Amino acid sequence: MSSNRVLNAAVLGATGTVGQRFIVLLSQNPMFKIHSLGASERSAGKPYAQATRWKMSEQMPENVRNIVVKSCDPALYEGCDVVFSGLDASVAGDVEKAFLESEFAVFSNAKNYRMAEDVPLCVPVVNTDHYAVVAAQRAARDKFGPISRVIVTTLQAVSGAGYPGVASLDILDNIVPLISGEEPKMEAEVLKILGGVSSDASVCSPLQDLRVSATCNRVPVVDGHTECVSLEFAGEPPSIDAIKQCLREYTCEAQDLGCFSAPAQVINVSEEEDRPQPRLDRNAGAGMSVTVGRIRPCPVFHVRFTLLVHNTILGAAGASILNAEYAAKKGYIV
Amino acid sequence: MSSNRVLNAAVLGATGTVGQRFIVLLSQNPMFKIHSLGASERSAGKPYAQATRWKMSEQMPENVRNIVVKSCDPALYEGCDVVFSGLDASVAGDVEKAFLESEFAVFSNAKNYRMAEDVPLCVPVVNTDHYAVVAAQRAARDKFGPISRVIVTTLQAVSGAGYPGVASLDILDNIVPLISGEEPKMEAEVLKILGGVSSDASVCSPLQDLRVSATCNRVPVVDGHTECVSLEFAGEPPSIDAIKQCLREYTCEAQDLGCFSAPAQVINVSEEEDRPQPRLDRNAGAGMSVTVGRIRPCPVFHVRFTLLVHNTILGAAGASILNAEYAAKKGYIV
Amino acid sequence: MSSNRVLNAAVLGATGTVGQRFIVLLSQNPMFKIHSLGASERSAGKPYAQATRWKMSEQMPENVRNIVVKSCDPALYEGCDVVFSGLDASVAGDVEKAFLESEFAVFSNAKNYRMAEDVPLCVPVVNTDHYAVVAAQRAARDKFGPISRVIVTTLQAVSGAGYPGVASLDILDNIVPLISGEEPKMEAEVLKILGGVSSDASVCSPLQDLRVSATCNRVPVVDGHTECVSLEFAGEPPSIDAIKQCLREYTCEAQDLGCFSAPAQVINVSEEEDRPQPRLDRNAGAGMSVTVGRIRPCPVFHVRFTLLVHNTILGAAGASILNAEYAAKKGYIV
Amino acid sequence: MSSNRVLNAAVLGATGTVGQRFIVLLSQNPMFKIHSLGASERSAGKPYAQATRWKMSEQMPENVRNIVVKSCDPALYEGCDVVFSGLDASVAGDVEKAFLESEFAVFSNAKNYRMAEDVPLCVPVVNTDHYAVVAAQRAARDKFGPISRVIVTTLQAVSGAGYPGVASLDILDNIVPLISGEEPKMEAEVLKILGGVSSDASVCSPLQDLRVSATCNRVPVVDGHTECVSLEFAGEPPSIDAIKQCLREYTCEAQDLGCFSAPAQVINVSEEEDRPQPRLDRNAGAGMSVTVGRIRPCPVFHVRFTLLVHNTILGAAGASILNAEYAAKKGYIV
């Protein structure tokens, strides 16, 4: 398939917050045209504008207002080249399976199949909402040898929990020191993302020798996850300047391929002492760049830093779209 | 001096937020009577109610409304047994020195002399706004051998910066990933607090073999500092249950002496998986207890947990008052 | 019945946020003893501590932890003298009716029967969460003749919506300019509260000649409703000073009867130009006082002012408890 | 002067938040080129990137980073066609006077000369941060006869107070019911904006017969002022539908002239019952549109509604820029 044809895209879970973000991003994307919108039976049959309580700060794109929402039955999605899933994990499992069995190319934010041995956790530029550690690890492994230990504490935005998600009584003038299931997910996913594939390319093989401790907090911030990271290298640690340069120079194949959603700069290294900050830095690179700041020696490990990622763009819908762009450019979507 | 006499107390910096907190706490304290209030030249000569923009959620105690504020000249404080300083660090140095030279017993929140070799960083029950790590360390050292490494990330309330302190534009829908000077202060103070004194009791000798890495963030919370801690023991680590029991059983001399401000329970160990939370737990023990929760194994070090402390009570004015109670009970205030 | 006997109290909806507030207040109240706790079938049969996710900043009273929660069947509440209902409006209708038919004295926060012709909207000291306008009206009517027109804009705290209530994504860095059903409720209730009773005392007769326009907003505040009010008097308006004095001198029968929950000062008149503020003033009078400030001439009507009321204490559970105290003192609870 | 020449613009107060907003907006504006940046003596002589703590969520435009900041002496601004002033009111008076005397065209946000008899409060599309009442009034006056009385309560964002502006301790979990000087300013300015000019065009003549009562609150919102308005017409009131249509059809000369900053839709009329909301609607029309919702009958006056305006764009820098565009198109800038 030529990578230049405009692809017809479906968005499943289109009325939810992740679905709404998909719609905002796709409506600005030259590679995709929104063709179909899927949601629950309750919404099916209604024009999108009527089925949806729009919660984005961008206005609802005119061209989706009158698209009639369908239920999530693959038989109804003929003509779609790509399916983006913003479904909630509680239903994503069965629905995505059905679409896969009908041979659709599915790009999902849901966590259901992320750790399945034969499902890749793709990283075209980016990966999860905890991306920069990964990029740092990759960059470091290539240049400085592997990282052996990571301790990370996150300060995560409420939009990560969807809508209605976090109750206001839980988060105004408050911190919630637990995000259920997030810590083991984060500790496991990073090993898979950084791992390899088996020699016959049939299964993923996670890293074995990296130890990660993640503590995840919910904070009263709308968008943008902040992470405070301390790293230990297995061997001789590089200098702080070498690390900064390595992060600044980090590029990815999606950029080289000219993918629309790939940011000009994958990792912004900030030299200002009080950055990154979610309200000021989350929209860097249209929400597709990571900002890393406060890179400095760690008195316990080798280096520590603070990173910021826009959790609903780079950490969710934006990454799925870039994955799809990458897959199309590479000819994986037939 | 008998410990049962009511002591006349002066509050320096009485119009500021720390000073206001001193006044609220002292007005409920049977051991002290507010005798004198000191502030800047601008306030001197005015009745307290007029000189002050009251910012506490408790009402201004009636009996201080008409006390005429004095300037901070020791000659004006005759009759005071104890001097509490809520002065800003920018002026605390000279003023506190003058009071000391006039032989007043000064209990200060200011950081100016904290690391001076001949000034104790006293811990009657408590110490600084980063107390529980200290208590955990002490408890652990006594029971399980020393802690070798600590990595801590803090989420600190805005009241820690005084008034006006943090600008609302910096903290609404935002995190500030730097608190200027806080990280080295925290990393150094913990060593002094846990250290010993020289054999002739003339100087403090900080711990040498504990390594601490602190990353400090400002978060949109009014009161209550949250800290996410990972610990490594030098030797064989105790079980999680042993650690919990050790923290629960932790007591201090100030409790035994019956100090009014000593909490019934120094450390509350929470078994709820999403606690401590600043809005819900900061007032435990009238703000003088620490709450520790999420005590669990750390995949990188031995144990990790989250703790909460009321930064302007246990972490500031309350600790100074308890120090003074303790000193009086022990006969150190003559 | 003697008013000095301790009354056995039941709390329905005990696991919700209004129910939790009832429990905190009743546990400090000398007139009532918590005897029974009622909630949904899902909670029935479990000890209270296990059935409840405690969300108060006060700790759960020890003596309720082990009370086994019952379902809301009147047959199970033998021995209860008073029933407090913190039930949600969706179930309060049927349940409260059943308790009334079983001849329990029910004090409810739910709105279901508030406007029924034969149900009083009682005002011992206080009434609804929009109390001070009422008190001002009553005070003014007595002293200055009736008020003819009121325009009020509210800024209401999220706790008014219960738990989970307002989603954090709706209120962080935001205002919601609608509280569904609140404006007509407020406009109608004030007429009933200020109205009279028919000559045979069988039905309430709302005021006819007062016009009220209420606009209700939800704001990112945890507790405390703020209201900006402009008033027009039917006749010659009193001076600003006369209004202030009238509000300051306002007392109620519940105070005279020595009801435990009646505040010393029903209405605090603040002379500070930037008060009342919810965080600083909501706890005045243990949450049972109203604070009124910024009383000044209105260029359009006669007078305007800003008032603050603690919506979950004076505006909800506290008012019900005071109603019950008042009813008991007056011998209405047999 | 041809309106198509790119004009050289200076920004005074360039390092402050209003100045930063000017720079963001001007860098995207085809009509102006940033030529000079002025600030206090402390900043003068430094490259802009070094002199400024950048607080915008947009990145600092590359082409201003190296512009050397000047002091605010008109002699240094040769070659500038237009001067935008984001100066603080404390210094704007003298500086703007000096620039005017040197015959610069000055477009200012400062309030110093707003009420001077010979200074117009220009309204190309928009006017102040309380614009929609004005537009409604104008639209209504033209179509329905004049408005006689307005009662408005505002919920204003913290960015309106500049930086550092509102202290976080004053606004987290809180409302501040006073914005010093704002109410009389608002009550007076609306009369001037809606007024006429004398027959010889030498002085402005404010409206005489409109009465306005404004109550202004600060709320924990970053950007976007919300206003709750009740209006009375002098004569027969129009229907709600007629009002909506009138607002929707409202256009202005700046649109007709094709000014770059004029929004496509001056007033967005929302039919959703819970809009406008600051976080969702402030960026409508790139921050240059007003959103009006909840238009409904008022039980006291004739109509009431809620409006939202982006206070630092339409309410400040954006309005000044549009004023300058309009003036240039009309040939007022020579």
From TrEMBL, chains A, B, C, D:
Pathway: Amino-acid biosynthesis; L-methionine biosynthesis via de novo pathway; L-homoserine from L-aspartate: step 2/3; Amino-acid biosynthesis; L-threonine biosynthesis; L-threonine from L-aspartate: step 2/5
GO-annotated biological processes: methionine biosynthetic process; threonine biosynthetic process
Swiss-Prot/TrEMBL keywords: Amino-acid biosynthesis, Methionine biosynthesis, NADP, Oxidoreductase, Threonine biosynthesis
Protein transport in keyword set: no
Membrane-spanning parts: none
E.C. code: 1.2.1.11
Semialdehyde dehydrogenase NAD-binding domain: residues covered: 8-134
Pfam families: Semialdhyde_dh (PF01118), Semialdhyde_dhC (PF02774)
GO molecular function annotations of the record: aspartate-semialdehyde dehydrogenase activity; NAD binding; NADP binding; protein dimerization activity
Keyword Oxidoreductase recorded: yes
SMART domains: Semialdhyde_dh
Family: Belongs to the aspartate-semialdehyde dehydrogenase family.
Record-given protein name: aspartate-semialdehyde dehydrogenase
